[in-house]
Structures
1.
Amino acid sequence: MKKAIPESSAVPARIPLCKPYLSQDEEIAALEVLRSGWLMQGEKVSDFERLVAGYVGVNYAVAVNSGTSALLLALLAVNLKAGDKIIMPSHSFVATANSAVLCGGEPVFADIGQNGYTIDPAAIGPAIDSQMRALMVVHQIGYAAEMDRILSLARQHGLAVVEDAACSLGSSYRGRQTGSFGEVACLSFHPRKVITTGEGGMVLTDSEEIGQTVRCLRNHGLGDARTPASTGCLRPGFNYRLTDVQAAIGIAQFGKLHEILRLRRRLAARYREILSGISALWLPAEVEHSMPNYQSFAVEVADTSIDRDALIGRMTARGIECRPGIQPIHLEPAYADKYGNVRLPETMRAARNSFFLPLYPAMTEEEQDIVIHTLKDSLNACRKAKGAQCAR
Ligand SMILES: Cc1ncc(COP(=O)(O)O)c(C=O)c1O
């Protein structure tokens, strides 16, 4: 028999936005490394790299200590330098643009499409000029970008394609894994991503040269991680190494990837089926020929009488953790002086209306029903209260 859903806010549901899918496997794996005495980058890192490279379908994978480090090293490896322009969506986490700026590059922000959260291929062409060197694609919250059109534009204009695949491990486009399309791609293993190492990231590429450059840069610019004395410092680099403890956790997580994707997609399909019947909400479309990993689940308020933030406030007060959707980089304090007047209507639509609902692999259907029920209730309450009067 179906359990009754609590009607009042007297019993808070306490459903988090996300929760990593961890078990004893990760504990055992980390403990084994701790007991081995070799904690820094070693065999476990190499094993983790091999597993991910094989899965995504690229020749080289280089593990680093965050997705942000991966982006910075990837851009240095494709030789983005002072004065070079790089086109990217503003609808992303700041790390996407920060990495370009820290290389001396100049982001050029393009809008996302009307139906989703990835860069609009139609917005790319008009932004290209003689200083444009690269194109950063973000497979945002696991939705694959329209790679066919993007790759053909990049080829036409001689631009290096860099995939920010921080959120999209396991997402595919025309049967190919995201992270395998560009000259170089970057993953994140932050706990909000599909698999986690606590903090961590990876650079993926088919190019031996890019792979070697990234390996060198992550380890102080030393030519060979195992025998640094033999080559010395070839170029100024960083210490962006991942530890074997983290890699062991990553390997255990990787073993669950198939299951994680199955559970995420099942829950997302259920949200889609039920929420598509609510006229006050709008759901982004899945890009044609793509399979999202549903790293996050975003919906948008479609009824202008409903205040999105007040709706989130009501959900939160009832124990359902919700968050506003992605806020545009070009309006962040670090970017607003230079880019504040750029017109990006769809990016602003998403920033204004979108919000994230809880979704994590261990979420039960009962928990999901509580989220849906509370959402319907909160929409009704907000609609009645109308805008400013809507209680937070
Ligand atoms: C699109 C995107 N790129 C890059 C990053 C940075 O990854 P990390 O947090 O591992 O540095 C994130 C993290 O949220 C992200 O969402």
2.
Amino acid sequence: MNDINVAILGIGTVGTGAYKIIESQKDEFPYKTGSKINISKVLVRNKNKKREGINENLITDDWSEIINDDSIKIVIEVMGGIEPAKTYISEALKKGKSVVTANKDLIASYGSELLDLAKENKCDILFEAAVAGGIPIIRPLKQCLAANKIEEVMGIVNGTTNFILSNMTDEGMEFDDALKLAQELGYAEADPTADVEGYDAARKVAIMASIAFNSRVTFDDVYTEGISKISAKDIKYAKELGCDIKLLGVAANTDEGIEVRVHPMLIPSEHPLAGVKDSFNAVFVKGDAVGDTMFYGKGAGELPTASAIMGDVVDVARNINFDCCGRIGCTCYKQLPIKKMDDICSKYFIRMQLLDKPGTLASVLSILGNNGVSIYQMMQKKRRNNSNAEIVIITDSVKEKNLKDSMTILEGMSIVNKVSSIIRVY
Ligand SMILES: NC(=O)c1ccc[n+]([C@@H]2O[C@H](COP(=O)([O-])OP(=O)(O)OC[C@H]3O[C@@H](n4cnc5c(N)ncnc54)[C@H](OP(=O)(O)O)[C@@H]3O)[C@@H](O)[C@H]2O)c1
């Protein structure tokens, strides 16, 4: 039995989890893979930092000690960021080392390039941990569901925003208070932009869409809108309508091209995704043969994310032992167009403050009607202050362009004091 030596690049949250699993599973891995898995080196930025539970003889801040060590067969990249991660991964692949990474930023923008490099060098590059942390979704899409035409992938893939929205829903908190709580509990970073503005979710959706539809989708292709404008009032109205508001990543394979977007959405409270609370993640996949499937679990954290990393390491170790690395590489063999947001159809929730005088509502409905926007449901609350009346409209499904055109006209009219929210409805 040959040992398989690995190097871990980065020993923060995920790297520490991977280290712990390698230790705790060391007697099991030989049975599962045919090899003992040894940690040869751990790369860090700051060699002098105290790292509890990590063998300090393994620590290095010198990449050349790893790249030039031919006995290292697998590089686990858990540093994050684009550079130097991209350079290190590329160099490792060129040297014939397989790579396991959790780096969604890198894969969402440079996945194609790295997969090509892996193919050229007959190596694996696996990234299960890059989407929805501990939840298996990349491998199910690439392998278990490979016999399907995947029609839709939709999910809650950011735990921070789901925690914030759960607290706004269950505790009636406003966005700023819920964000502060998330930061105090360690669910949100000091700079929460990537999470609350939907960029983190967009990266994951780009990766999932590419695999699901066999056509490359990058981060820049994803329309992204975050949750910072959602108010406790919107959530209260949504509840009255039998819905919850979630930040959803949606990717659909339509005859006109791929729809790919991240934005808040009202979904019926009985939909399985509405029940996904706090920092949990879930991904809903619809295939033509399998029908509806849902994957649920912890989308981040030390051990859940390391579980996905080490699942990939076990896979690579098996491939090394059977001399079949590179067996499943890039699956993007089509070039489908990305559908423009203006052409996407959706129902909309519109909350606006109107001047409270006769004829106002009729004028609003007429503008909407003239632009092809028909009304599915409407609410006007008695809570009037000064000369304002607040109305909530749910439209029928309509093209985004028509909705935008009508809202531009309405926002310019003196009878419309404010358009407070426009949120898409499932
Ligand atoms: N945290 C999660 O729950 C989670 C979930 C899914 C995916 N991910 C992804 O996993 C990756 C790692 O995340 P994390 O939360 O574990 O990060 P982290 O806690 O910030 O740890 C990063 C580690 O990488 C090292 N590092 C950073 N830049 C380096 C460089 N230039 N050279 C050498 N070492 C460097 C750091 O070294 P020092 O300690 O010396 O600073 C640190 O040990 C990211 O791509 C992230 O998106 C994380």
